[in-house]
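Session log. Operator J.P. requested a structure for one protein chain; no other inputs attached. Running the standard single-chain path with C-alpha cell output.
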Amino acid sequence: MDERSRKAVTSEQSNDGEQYLPATFAIFPEKLEGQGRSFGLLLLHRRCAACWGALIQEPAGGLELPWQDHLVKIAEHCSANQDFVSPGLPIMEAVFRVLLSNGNQPTTLEEVLAVLQKQWSDSASHWVPPPAKLHRMLTRDVFYGIGSVPPPT
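Structure written below.
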C-alpha cells in the first residue's frame, strides 16, 4: 500500500465516515418502476394493522390506491406506531421506513442515523452501522429505490 492509500485508510478509520453525514437520500419511485416493481405495493405492505383492517374491506384491498395516498397515510399515521421502525428489522428496511415516516422528503444520513439510534437505543441486539458503511449501503441499494439526492445548485 502506497503512502497516499495508507493516509486515506487512516483518515477514514479515524473519523468513521463523518464526511458522509450531510449526504441526502430519498426513495425514487421511478427507479422502482424502471425495474418493473410497484412502489404502491411496497407501501401497501408497510401500512399498520389498523389500516389493514380498513383496507381489506375495500374491493381491491388497497391495491387500487395511488402510492401517494399510501405515503401520506404512512407518514401521518402508521409511522407514529413505536414498532414502525423496530429493532428486529434489517437495516435497509429500517432506513426505508425512516424515509417513509418523513414523507419521503430528502433526509440526510445524519438524520437517518439519529432516528435509528433513538429507535434502537433499548436493544442490545441491534447494531447501527457507522456513517461510511451506511452510506455505502444506501448508494448501492437496488431493492428499495433509495438514491442520493443531489445537493441544491
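Operator note: Residues 40 and 67 are 4 Å apart (CA to CA).
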